[in-house]
Write a structure and sequence with these properties.
- By secondary structure, this protein is mostly beta strands.
- It has a single domain, classed as Beta Barrel (Porin).
- It has an eight-stranded antiparallel barrel with strand order 1-2-3-4-5-6-7-8.
- The N and C termini lie far apart (37 Å).
- About 8% of the residues have low confidence.
Length: 178
């Protein structure tokens, strides 16, 4: 599993370097950006040979980042996955740092991927904290030089509170580049 994730990260970085020849707009060098997401969340809990997926309703998050080029950047993320329905009512939040690569498809549309390290905490039990790899993938549409929208999938691989809880979010996002 770790080999697949490392390979995916290396591939995303490689793709971003190959994308340098394409520019959607004139680059002004390094630039900061902020963004927010809202979407549907779920948790997959596994124990032994069984796994169960439960809806958590609506989640939200935000990020602040630095575009190093038009196609590559680094960002800090906060994600609130909402309340998991069921017996224990887990409520996971995540803080992380990720590398982000964007590959233009055509005109204002691009595909992106993120991979990073996240710390996840269960708000019901603050001692239930774990860290792990998080991934994100999706489409980004650039409305103008400063505003873009995303459609994305987010997943973090962690074990919180003695069980293997894997939070996932399917989200819409809005970004503003400074």
């Amino acid at each position: 599993m770790k080999t697949i994730l490392k390979t995916t990260l290396v591939a995303a970085i490689f793709i971003s370097f190959n994308a340098f020849a394409y520019h959607r707009h004139e680059s002004s060098g390094i630039s900061p950006y902020i963004g927010g997401i809202v979407g549907s969340t779920e948790y997959t809990a596994s124990s032994g040979n069984t796994s169960e997926t439960k809806s958590a309703g609506v989640g939200f998050g935000g990020d602040i980042g630095l575009k190093l080029t038009d196609h590559f950047g680094i960002e800090g993320d906060y994600i609130n996955y909402g309340n998991m329905s069921g017996d224990n009512d887990d409520h996971l939040t995540a803080l992380g740092v990720a590398l982000r690569a964007l590959y233009p498809i055509s005109g204002a549309l691009g595909i992106f991927g993120k991979a990073g390290f996240y710390s996840v905490t269960d708000s019901k039990d603050s001692s239930a904290t774990d860290s792990g790899l998080g991934i994100d993938a999706g489409l980004e549409y650039q409305f103008s030089t400063n505003i873009s929208a995303t459609l994305e999938y987010n997943h973090i691989f962690v074990q919180v509170g003695g069980s293997n809880l894997r939070p996932t979010m399917y989200a819409l996002g809005l970004n503003y580049d400074f």
